[in-house]
Each structure stands twice: as C-alpha cells, then as structure tokens.
Amino acid sequence: MKVHVDQERCQGHTLCAMIAPKAFELSEIDGHSSPVDENVADDQEEQVREAVHSCPERAITLTE
Ligand code: F3S
C-alpha cells in the first residue's frame, strides 16, 4: 500500500501526524504533512487508513 499527500490540499491540520506519527512528518517550514515513507509498513496500515479519513481537506490518498 502506498500513501500520498497532496501538497496543494494539505492545510497543516496535523490530524494525520497525531493519528499516525510514525507514518507522517510535518514540515517545520509550512506545517504540511508528507509520508515518512510512501510505502506503508504493514503495522502502520490501520493508522494510516484512519488518518486518511481524519483529514478535513481529503489531502491523503492511498493506492494498493
Ligand atoms: Fe495536512 Fe490533512 Fe494532515 S490537512 S497535515 S494531510 S490532516
């Protein structure tokens, strides 16, 4: 499973990084989120799926 954060949509709400802190990192410059690794580790899948649903901007997408 791969994860992508649309930098145009991300508004830095930080929910993704709170729900899945091992999977997302926030930029110190603009606060935007990006995946730590676009290939989601098996033990992170559940949290990453939760993060996708939590993002108010719908900025996070998954591909199988
Ligand atoms: Fe950005 Fe959504 Fe996370 S707006 S910081 S991807 S919760």
From TrEMBL:
Signal peptide: none annotated. The keyword Calcium does not apply. GO terms for molecular function: 3 iron, 4 sulfur cluster binding; electron transfer activity; iron ion binding. Its cofactor is [3Fe-4S] cluster. It comes from the Bacteria. The keyword Iron-sulfur applies. Pfam families: Fer4_15 (PF13459). Keywords: 3Fe-4S, Electron transport, Iron, Iron-sulfur, Metal-binding, Transport. Ferredoxins are iron-sulfur proteins that transfer electrons in a wide variety of metabolic reactions. This is Ferredoxin. It comes from Nocardia flavorosea.
